Each structure stands twice: as C-alpha cells, then as structure tokens.
What does this fold into?
Amino acid sequence: MSARCAEPHDLTDRALRDRAVAAARGDAPFDLLIRGGQVFDAVTGRLREADVGITGKLITSVHASATRTDGVKVLDAEGLILTPGLIDTHMHIESSMITPAAYAEAVLPRGVTTVVWDPHEFANVHGLAGVSWALEACANLPLRVIVLAPSCVPAAPGLERSGAAFGKAELSDMLARPGIGGVAEVMNMRGVIERAQIISDVVQAGLESGKLVCGHARGLSGSDLNAFMAAGVTSDHELTSGGDLMAKLSAGLTIELRGSHDHLLPEFAAALNALGHLPSTVTLCTDDVFPDDLAQAGGLDDVLRRLVRYGMPVAWALQAATLNASHRLARPDLGLVAAGRRADIALFEDLSAFSAAAVIANGALVAREGKLIEKPAALSTAPLKNSIHCPTYSADDFKVRSEGRRIKVATIHRPRFTEWGEAETYVKGGFVVPPRGATLVTVIHRHGRGPAIPRTGYLTGWGNWRGAFCTTVSHDSHNVTVFGGNEADMAVAANWVIEAGGGMAVARDGQVATSLPLPLSGLVSDAPLAEIAGDFTALRSAMDDIVEWEPPYLVFKACFGATLACNAGPHQTDLGIADITRPTVMETPILEILE
It folds into this structure.
C-alpha cells in the first residue's frame, strides 16, 4: 500500500504524535515554522495574525506571532494569508487533456492540494484497466487525488456503447481498493429512479462499501429527486438555476458548485447571499476545465476568484473550498489551519486574486511563485495508446440513405435541454438532403465492441456551419463525433482524427484547418500543458471561423456534451437517436416516406 493510499491513517503514527506534542509544548523545535503571516480561520471566517508550526505532516501549533523562533526550517510569510489547501470536490482530469502528473504541476502551485477525480472518461475507453492506470498514476503525486469508481460505463446503457460495461462486480472490485474514495457521479438518473437492476446494483455496491455515493441530478425535482436520493445518492453538481440550487440544498443534497458553467455563477452567488449564510453542505468543484483555461486561469482557484467577483463573500467561498469540502469527504484531517490537522496550506498574496506565493502539502514546501519545486514523475502512458478502432470514411458514409422522393425526418433541437423536432425534406440519389438550416451530427463507435457504422442525425438551433469539426472527446462514451455543414468536410475531419489515434480537427473547403492530436485514449496528450493549450486555443479560433456561437448554450463547449444520452431529451449516439424517456433507439432519423 502506498503512502497516499494509507491516508488518513498515516497521521495516527504514535511517534509522529509524540514529536508533535513535544513541539507544541515548546520542548522540541518545529520541522517548519511559518512566520509573519495572517491565518484564515475557516470556522469563523476571520483573519488573525499568527505563526504556524509544522511537525512532519502535522500542523503542530497555531500561535501568536513572534512567540516562537525554533524551527529547523523557517518560511517567511510576511504579507501573506495562510488558508487551508483548496479541495476540488468533483472533477475530470481528462477534460484538461493532460496526464495526472501534468495536472498536478498545473494546479498545486495555485493552492489546490486535493482533488476528487472521477476517471469516468478513461473507464469508458479502457474499462477497469483505465481505472487501474488512474490509481497508479496518482499514487505518488504531491497533489492529493481521491479517485472515485466510475458508476456509469456507459452513461446510458442500451442507448449507447462505450469501451466497457460496468455492473456490480466491477464496482465492488473498485470499491474494495483502498485508493478508491467512493462511487463517482451516478448519471443514469432514470435508471436509478425506476430501479433498473444494473444501476441499482452499482449504487448498492457503494452503499455497502460505506464510501461516498455521488450524483448527477440534472433537471430532477419533486418525486423524481426524492426517489434519486432515497436510492442513496447524496450530492449534485448539475445545477440549472438559483432556484434549482436552493431546492436541492433544501432537499438535503451536498452541492458541488461548479465553475464550468460560468453563466450560472452570478445567479448562484445571489441566491446564497439572499439566504444570508453559507450552508455547510455547499462545496466547490471545477468539473471540466479546458487546457487553455487551465493554463491561463487555473483550476479551483479560478472558481474562487469568479465567485468573489460575482459577489460571494470571500470567507464563504474559502469555507466552501476547504472546511465544507473536508466534511463532505469525511476527512477531518483536512480543511483547517489548526493544530492536529494535516499540513496542507496555501499562502496567498491576497484574497481576491488568490495568487499563491507558496504551497505546503503534507508538511513539505512543494511550490513557490507559481511553480512546483520538484517536477512529479509521470507514469508510462503506453496502456492508453491505440484506442481508435475505426476505418476511414468517404463523404457518402455521412449521408443518410432513404427510399422515396419526399420524407419526414426527426431533428434534435437546441444544444442543451434538447427537444424532438420534425422537418420535411427530399431524397436525391438515394440520400437524404439535410433539412434547411440543419447541422449534421454523426457518431461512430470507435471502441471495437460493435460495428463502426456512422450514425447521422440532424441538429437544429446550432447555427450555420461552413465546415466540420471532429472530436473523440465526446461525453461520455467518447466515440468519434462529427459536426458539420457538409459531408465532405466531415469526412476530412474524421479521417484526420482517426489516423492520429484520437483528438480533434477542424476542416473547411476540403482541408484540415487546425488540429489537436490526443493519442492517449483519444482524450489526452503527454505533451506539456502549454503546448496543448496553444493548440487548443488555435482550434477554438478555427471553430469561430466556421460557426457563429450564441451563448450561453450554443458555445464551443456544447460540442463535447451533445451526445450525453443520460440527460433528458434526444441525443445522437453510436446506435442512433436516443432518449431516456423512450424505449427504443432510432437507428435512422427517417420518420416517414411521404412520396
């Protein structure tokens, strides 16, 4: 068992406690003394001038300034504010398209000392082997990574196929591992509510393990929300409004207030301000952070900055990101700068920019001035390669075949909160002419667990496309997904991505304009973050040239969640058009041959 897996039991060591008590009494020196700063008290929300003594991994003493000078090492914190290390309660490293080691290098110097990672994306591509790789990749990082057991692989069984299928046996296997902290977001909401056996068995495995059972309760209310919670799910990050936030707080869910939907944060801050206090069940999370956003703005520190800018009191934001998070994780060793707690401390220059001058993790100085002191060792990524099992395609493969001359087809309306629609169109040369104003979307199974047949549907409300975009980052099955205004550009983009072993490509006028290779699982790269961020920024710019976005729903990010079949409404998958409220998948969008 690694040292990281032994947490929090490593702090029960008798010799460590003996040394800590002696140092607290003044009978032995501290291993590290932090002098001259102010300490943020996450319980009262106040600042006070104090010095902090550390012995091993333990905070030994928080005492009046300049009353102790006996530190083996001394860190000058004049003008700095000491807070508990920040805790991100729900996130996906794969969304930043980098390895866990690179992620640690990006966020730890910013004051984030703990993240709760759902390696759902790796699991959907590689199954249990992906989770095993995730655990091994995090075992010796200076960043604390609490890994959760992916609960929904695939996210919508019967409506899509991914690279594996998890049931109770797989969940029990993962939950028995000491490095697994609980069940990751349960996304098959309808299955939970209707007590479908597979997902009910998954939740039951979590309950029997005594570990966390985390949720994904988008759009649930009333009896559905009660049923979801009665099954054993205890958290949610899929909030849609301030009213939804308050309803779920009142229902008793732990809230993982996420930064990935920035347009909602002002409403959330206003709703909590109107309440007049911060509930102890509000925590913060990033969920998904694109590589350029991570490189430029950061992780959970960026969520803090934005919440404060939108009007949330600083003390509330910090409490949510530290003490409240530690309560949620049942980790009393975290979340406070106090004697007897684990020495995870961020030293910020101020509490608005949240710029970390130094970071302590497990009692050691691990970062200064925005950089890690020692670069973490990266695990071999060989097991993540060669995950694309598709041939290349022609433009005709992206067309829908049909008989007749005039037909009625089903459409998928809006990027989010999708609705069914219908349109009349024509057939030419045996192929459907896409309805006027429609955007084509094609999903191709790429995991080798079924035929790699392109399944094409029609999107409305997605703007006017002058090219195509292909991605293997496509939540949550991560099949090859292609959007476009014409089939020729779709084929060009898809073939580049397939031949690259995964990634993204923008095509226009028969050529690839910009691309980003992601050869590891079709999700991430082992290139440096700065390089990936630069390529991703260029790709975003190229996308602006082929479609006009209409925030907050018609945005580039919508392309990555357009196949999320566990959410209500129609979604294109590798099997056809799926809707969790309907019993069967439509293999083709053709509804009726009119003539």
